[in-house]
């Protein structure tokens, strides 16, 4: 089933994200975690794409496995900036053969050494190409606080519009910790004429290190209220985990109360965190 059909049903959706292992030794562990998350019956699951080496095959393997063995609808991620056209074409064929109908089309980060493959510069080029390969439902990324490389938010929104016009069926946001940032962003993109469904990306922060790593990579602002939580509970792993789950759950409740229909949780291969969040929303997700 195409994700966009799931999103167009008149209900609040909850989806979870997993990432594939970097090496074969860890595959079984990741697969088990992904199956546990699938057993929560989310509306769908996404499987991220590690741009380097053999890890791209694990995205196909994990997505196929989840789809065929658990019946969970999946969306497989694909990045392009470090890939050749041949490799992208091979990946799209692999998704097709696995019965995967949904692809999250991303540019990918520019590697620190600057080594890119020069076949693609931006995600919209990948989106156009996926469309040429068949009838896929295509998702794209968006950045409520602006993408780190883009100096002016106005330009970022123009680029986003170009991406949607290239064939994006929906957009998933980068994590954010202040819901007002999302409400403001939604106002601006709707005004710019971007009408596709938006999935609010929520990252439950369950340890102190994870916060600094995530913020460093994404440039996401941390509100004072959340800083105080991390300052107070950060050195107590159990307390930090619980506080992080509660903070994420409260964010989601506020989003739903304000009319946001699609919640995507960056569950980071943690079934217990995914389950706790789902449990906190059990009376709300109807
Ligand atoms: P683009 O949409 O191409 O945008 C990248 C930058 O280029 C932006 O600054 C944009 O404003 C600018 N730009 C776009 N078009 C133009 C244009 N025509 N002219 C000039 N500038 C332009 N990374 C992974 O490696 N694997 C994953 O699985 C993965 N999943 C992700 C999922 C989500 C929901 C998100 C938010 C991010 C994900 N990422 C992933 C990270 C992503 O690859 C990076 O954020 C990357 O830097 C940008 O990717 P993009 O697809 O948003 O790029």
TrEMBL record:
Pfam families of this UniProt entry? MTHFR
What pathway is this protein said to act in by its record? Amino-acid biosynthesis; L-methionine biosynthesis via de novo pathway; One-carbon metabolism; tetrahydrofolate interconversion
Question: Which keywords accompany this UniProt record?
Answer: Amino-acid biosynthesis, FAD, Flavoprotein, Methionine biosynthesis, NAD, Oxidoreductase
Q: Which cofactor does it need?
A: FAD
InterPro entries on file: FAD-linked_oxidoreductase-like, Mehydrof_redctse-like, MTHF_reductase_bac
- Reaction(s) catalyzed by this protein? (6S)-5-methyl-5,6,7,8-tetrahydrofolate + NAD(+) = (6R)-5,10-methylene-5,6,7,8-tetrahydrofolate + NADH + H(+)
Give the main EC class. Answer: oxidoreductase
Superkingdom: Bacteria
Enzyme Commission code: 1.5.1.54
Q: Which residues form a coiled coil?
A: none
A Gene Ontology molecular function term for this protein is: methylenetetrahydrofolate reductase [NAD(P)H] activity
> Member of which family?
Belongs to the methylenetetrahydrofolate reductase family.
| Protein name per UniProt | Methylenetetrahydrofolate reductase
- Whose protein is this, by species? Faecalicoccus acidiformans
């Amino acid at each position: 089933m195409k994700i966009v059909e799931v999103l167009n049903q008149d209900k609040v959706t909850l989806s979870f994200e997993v990432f594939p292992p970097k090496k074969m030794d860890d595959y079984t562990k990741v697969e088990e975690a992904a199956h546990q998350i699938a057993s929560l019956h989310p509306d769908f699951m996404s499987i991220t794409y590690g741009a380097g080496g053999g890890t791209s095959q694990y995205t196909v393997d994990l997505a196929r496995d989840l789809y065929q063995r658990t019946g969970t609808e999946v969306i497989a991620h694909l990045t392009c900036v470090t890939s050749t056209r041949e490799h992208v074409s091979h990946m799209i064929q692999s998704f097709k053969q696995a019965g995967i109908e949904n692809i999250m089309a991303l540019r990918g980060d520019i590697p620190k050494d600057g080594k890119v493959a020069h076949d693609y510069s931006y995600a919209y080029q990948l989106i156009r190409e996926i469309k040429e390969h068949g009838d896929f439902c295509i998702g794209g990324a968006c950045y409520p606080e602006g993408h780190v490389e883009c100096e002016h938010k106005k330009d970022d929104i123009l680029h986003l519009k170009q991406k949607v016009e290239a064939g994006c069926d929906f957009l998933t946001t980068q994590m954010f910790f202040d819901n007002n940032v999302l409400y403001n962003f939604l106002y601006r993109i709707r005004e710019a004429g971007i009408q596709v469904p938006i999935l609010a990306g929520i990252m439950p922060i369950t340890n102190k290190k994870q916060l600094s790593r995530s913020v460093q990579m994404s440039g996401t602002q941390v509100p004072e209220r959340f800083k105080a939580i991390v300052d107070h509970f950060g050195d107590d792993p159990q307390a930090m985990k619980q506080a992080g789950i509660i903070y994420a759950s409260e964010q989601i409740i506020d989003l739903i109360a304000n009319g946001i229909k699609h919640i995507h949780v960056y569950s980071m291969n943690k079934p217990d965190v995914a389950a706790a969040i789902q449990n906190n929303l059990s009376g709300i997700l109807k």
